[in-house]
Every structure is written in C-alpha cells, then in structure tokens.
Design a protein that fits this description.
By secondary structure, this protein is α/β, with parallel strands linked by helices. The protein is built from 15 helices and 18 strands. It has 2 domains: 4-181, Cytidine Deaminase, domain 2 (3-Layer(aba) Sandwich); 190-371 and 410-492, NAD(P)-binding Rossmann-like Domain (Rossmann fold, 3-Layer(aba) Sandwich). A 9-stranded mixed beta sheet has the order 17-16-15-14-13-10-11-12-18, sandwiched between helices. The protein starts with a helix and ends with a strand.
C-alpha cells in the first residue's frame, strides 16, 4: 500500500493556507518552544472556503496544549489521548475545521515522516466523527537555513490534498510541496535588474511568485496595476464593473481615445496594458464588484489586495475579506478641495487593513446613506430621487428619500501618485523588505510638509471583527456586506 505522502502528492486540487497575527505569532512561539532539536505542536482551528478552483484555509485559533498534553520525554511530537479528546469535543461546539500543527527540528525539511503519516491517517478518521463535513488540516513548520519553511496537507472529501501555497501576512516564507521547496527553480529577469539591485534577488523572486488583487481599474487602480506589472508581480487579479468614458482618459493608464469611443471595459484595457508591459504576467480580469461571490473566490487567493475605488460597499467588503479571510489589504483614495477658485487640498489617503486591525466600521469609514444608495437598483434610485423632489417642493425634508453627494474631483497626477504608492506598499509586504508605517494615513500635497497625519483607531470590543478573525465562510452570517441580487452577473474577460 502506498504511503499517505505518496497518495497526497497525486492530488491536483489547489489548496491555499492563510495565516495572520496574532494567531500566527502565537503559533510560531509555541511550535518552536523546544527548538532547535525537538518538536512541539498544537491542535488548531481553521476557517475555509471551497471555490470551484481552490480550497482556502484560514487559521482561526489554537487549542494550545496544557502541561502533560504532549510528551516532553521524546524528541518528536507525542500527543496524549486526553488532549485529542478535548480538541474533538471542542469541535462539537464550533463550526471550524480541526487540524494539527507541529514543528520539525532546525534544518530538517518540513516533509511528513512515517510517524506523521500514521498520526494524520488516524486523526483524519478520528475527527470526522466529531466534525463531519469539515477538512482535517496538518501543517509542519521548520527553520531552514534561517528561513521559516512550512508544508501542509488536508483531508477533504475523501482525498488527501497538498497545500500548494502557505501565505502568512507580512511574513515571507517558503512553502514545501511533496518534500521540495516550491520556489527552488527561479529565473532572473533583466527587466527587473534595478529592483533586484535595490531589494535583492530573493525579493524579485517573491514578487514573481506573488498574486495581487486590485479592486478598481480607474485612475488610482490603473497606476497601481502598471507599477506592479513593471515590478515583476507574477499574477494580477483586476476587478472593475465599468467601461471607459472620455472623461477617464486624463487619468487611466494605458487608455487611448478609441477605448472611450468603443466603451472598452476597464479591466480589458488593464489586461492589455499589462501584457504590453510584461507578457509573462498572468492577468485575471473580472467585470464585477465586491462582494460578489466570484470576486471573493478570486481575491482570497491573493497575497495582497488593493482597494482603488471611492465606493462605500467596496471599502466595506475589502475590510471584511481582511479579517475573515486574512487577506492583507490597503484601501486608498484621493480628493481635491477648494474655495474661491483656489485649490486648498490635494488629499491622498491610505488605510491599512490587517487581520487584527480595526475594520471599516470600527474606523467610522462607512456613511450609511451613501452605502444604501450605492446598493439600490436603478429603478429604486429613480423612485427615491422623485420622492425627494416632491418632498422638497412641499417644503419637507428631501434627505429622508435621497442625498445628493458631491462629486469627488480627482486629477491624473494625484491618482497616479496614490496608486503608485499603494503598489509600493504592496511590494514591501510581499518582499518583506519594508512595512507601511501607518494605520490610516492622510497627506495634503499643498500643505507644508504635506501635512501628513496618521490616525490610530482602536477596534470596538463588541465589533464582529473581534469575534470571527480567520473564520472565512464559517462566519458568513457575520459578513459586513453582501452583494445585491440585482447586480449584473460577474464576467471574466
């Protein structure tokens, strides 16, 4: 009979495991408790999302061992039956998947041993009785030549599946698949020689393996897309529901007058522009909006997501993806202010969304009436505007029916700067070379020293973002926003 390792290596379905602090920090400290020579481990809970192409797993919590749960007299991990039973009984009280995470000694590859095979075979069957219909997850961590290495496999729907990617928020690591480091074969591209000289060959290789999602392909998004393509990002997911209009030509990178005449979808324009820059970049363009199901399916595969729209629903959905699916995100926006014919404000804003950060609701970033109007059907908007006009004619409060929102004017150099900076911060996260030093940053280009402000906003203790971090689809009932049924279906072009 073939070993479990051999069986799992024959499976082709894509599995992605996502990790984020504080749970990931707790895991590293616990798993390496007896380093460098001996193993240690813990039971863990995972959220998951099963898409048509991928199984996404998100670390939601640890069921850490107590004294006596693991045998300290042996070098490998040996789990007491009482600890196993405690984790199993706990699984009957929550909807999450169950798994085991343990370490291998330093410079011992995170490849399952025969002992690991026996443990996983036993636990996959054992936990199916307490958590039926849920994946069983097994992860192995080790330090290889000073770098964090990790491998994973999942028992799901009667099959063993290998984790092709393990993604940790702001912590580059190497994923091992079937005993081989997945990035063992890397090619050098002369086009990114300057970037490699600045950040190193390893950083350039990480970019080439990475996936970045850009929500919004207008002025800000198109600038971010171009910077990422030129930097050598391997895959871009681009989302936008709109077609190019003539007024967009001043801001949208890669646009030409014929695109406005032909009403070219912005994602198609972005795809073609990326291909003209670097044909090796894989582009996945979607005509649609967050939080439509197909868009979520795509974005949860990304290493980083950038929000480049001025839409309330998009910003709220991006925040939701961050804490439920552990996708680190940066939301950006621009605005011009003026009075008496003079420009008094050229403002760029960047909001960092990490799994443990305050969500968009905690930060007060969502205006309820704007969100409601964005989600209305066109027929309802017409009715509401008519009712508001009638109320105004009677001398009543028209705001009870409709709020006219001022247009946020933007210009190309401002959106280009903002999009380029957002892309740069994404590059910093992916490469591990620098970290955006802000929580919510605003800068005004026409004030002294740019009038830079960083607002640290604490989460509300009663907010849903505190309760379901990493719960993925298992917290769907707590989603901050869902897509209206009247929205057009998503199209991939």
């Amino acid at each position: 009979m073939a070993s479990l390792s051999q069986l799992s290596s024959q499976c082709s379905r894509s599995v992605i495991v996502r990790l984020a602090p504080p749970e990931f920090d707790q895991l590293r400290a616990l798993a390496f408790r007896r380093y460098p020579h001996h193993e240690w481990g813990t039971f863990a809970r995972f959220g998951w999302r099963d898409t048509p192409d991928d199984l996404i797993l998100t670390l939601a919590g640890l069921d850490s061992p107590t004294p006596g749960d693991l045998d300290e007299d042996v070098g490998n991990i040996s789990i007491a039956e009482r600890y196993t039973l405690r984790a199993a009984l706990a699984a009957e009280t929550h909807p999450l998947a169950v798994g085991v995470i343990h370490s291998h000694p330093r410079n011992c590859a995170p490849y399952p041993s025969l002992i690991d095979d026996d443990m996983d075979t036993y636990y996959a069957d054992y936990f199916s009785g307490f958590a039926p219909g849920r994946p069983y997850v097994s992860l192995i961590l080790s330090e290889m030549n000073g770098e964090l290495a990790i491998s994973g496999r999942v028992f799901w729907e009667k099959n063993w599946l290998l984790a092709e990617r393990v993604v940790a928020e702001r912590s580059p690591l190497s994923t091992w698949v079937a005993g081989v480091r997945s990035d063992s074969q890397e090619s050098r591209h002369e086009r990114t020689a300057r970037l490699r000289a600045a950040f190193g060959d390893q950083a350039a290789a990480r970019l080439r393996r990475s996936t970045v999602a850009v929500v919004g392909a207008g002025g800000t998004g198109s600038a971010a897309i171009e910077v990422l393509a030129r930097a050598g990002v391997g895959r871009l997911i681009i989302v936008d529901p709109d077609q190019l209009e003539e007024s967009n030509l001043e801001r949208v990178h890669g646009s030409r007058p014929e695109h406005a005449i032909e009403r070219t979808p912005k994602v198609s324009l972005a795809r073609d522009h990326v291909r003209s820059i670097d044909p090796a970049v894989e582009v996945s363009p979607y005509i649609g909006s967050l939080p439509q199901r197909e868009i979520i399916d795509a974005i949860v595969t990304a290493d980083v997501a950038l929000g480049c729209t001025d839409q309330q629903h998009s910003r709220l959905a991006l925040s939701d993806l961050t804490f439920r699916y552990l996708v680190p995100s940066i939301d950006c926006g621009v605005m011009l202010e003026g009075t008496n014919g003079a420009v008094t404000g050229q403002i760029a804003q960047f909001v960092r969304f990490l799994a443990a950060d305050s969500c968009a609701l905690c930060r007060g970033m969502v205006v309820s009436h704007r969100l409601a109007q964005e989600l209305m059907s066109e027929a309802e908007r017409v009715q509401r505007r008519a009712a508001a006009a009638a109320a105004h004619a009677r001398g009543d409060d028209a705001g009870a029916y409709w709020h006219d929102e001022p247009q946020l004017n933007t210009v190309g150099y401002l959106t280009t700067m903002t999009g380029a900076l957002a892309a740069g911060y994404a590059i910093g996260w992916i490469t591990g070379r620098f970290d955006p030093p802000f929580s919510r940053l605003q800068m005004n280009l026409v004030q002294q020293f740019f009038d830079v402000t960083n607002a640290e906003e604490l989460p509300r203790s009663d907010c849903v973002c505190r309760r379901v971090r990493g719960w993925a689809d298992q917290a769907a009932i707590d989603a901050l926003i869902t897509a209206p049924t009247h929205w057009p279906p998503v199209r991939r072009v």
